[in-house]
Design brief:
By secondary structure, this protein is of the alpha+beta class. It has two domains: 157 residues, Rossmann fold, CATH 3.40.50.300; 176 residues, Glutathione S-transferase Yfyf (Class Pi), Chain A, domain 2 (Up-down Bundle), CATH 1.20.1050. It contains eleven helices and 13 strands. The strands form three sheets. A six-stranded antiparallel β-sheet has the order 2-1-4-5-6-7. Helix 3 crosses helix 4 and helix 9 runs parallel beside helix 10.
Length: 341
Amino acid sequence: MNIIRKISLKNFRCHDEFALDCNRVTTLIIGENGSGKTSVLEAIYMALRGKSFKATDKEILRQEEEFFRAEVELNDGRKIIIRYSENPLRKEFEIDGKKTTRLPKKYHYPVVLFEPNNIYLIESSPSRRRDYFDELFRQIDLNYSTNLSRYNKALKQRNDLLKREDIRAEDIFSWNILCAQYGVELKQTRLKVLKKINELMTSNYQSIANNKDECYIEYLGENVDENEYLARLSQNFERDKILGYTSFGAHRDDYGFVFNGKNADGSASRGEMRSIILALKFIEAEILEKETGKQPVVLLDDIFSELDETRQKHLIHNFKNYQKIITSTNVPAEMQVNMSL
């Protein structure tokens, strides 16, 4: 269960110097808003996933400093060190004495990150939902990140060409082929993982809400093969040329939360939507553990302020077998009674 042993920071966000020994099961970081609690989770996430979940390296660097350093020691004795400097501009990861500009995939470790904004996922924009699920799919399917990167590069090239006044259909055909190839791969992974999520969604929701309501996540994107995908891009050329961007594809797809056969955004109460998202988070941890063979680290960022006492109890109970690092402005009532920190 114990994955993270220690973390130390230098010039990271508001932290001049910071060090923390993590407990085997639950580490609770208490502080006022703006005191740098989330920054600790951000550094852990960077060490395990290779990037921040909210900012660029320059934004992480403490004001008026030229470098930052984050070191995370794992329970097996390995240390992951992240260094970033402004002058000269450089970023590197160091593991077992070996330095690289990116965290190698073999060192990526699954993480369940629960932020306050996740609670509003159902009501948020399609782009935010895509970002949320893209990150989940990256952790579950090793090829997803590669396919998404290649798709986005091909899409950018196609969109750049569409802005040219003299562009012809044949000028973008090669990019159409790449968009179709990687777009179909992305769609297939999304459908495959959503199927696994939906197999568990209603039962998890009912265990939280203690009722017989049903819910699932609907993929709002057309399930087409490469030939159909390519045909749609070709058919849309004149329209896309006028718009100046690609109007069809994996980058436009969305995810709908369905509650008792209706759109949850319009039919579920605020409490019911919170329970749906809680169920999704529990499933996320379960699927990550099953697919990767590793127990994910659970990072809970000031989430207790968004949940009532009943949902706090479910959160603690369902994540009891995982190492949790939690930030809060106070000690949640459920933890005061049931948790030994």
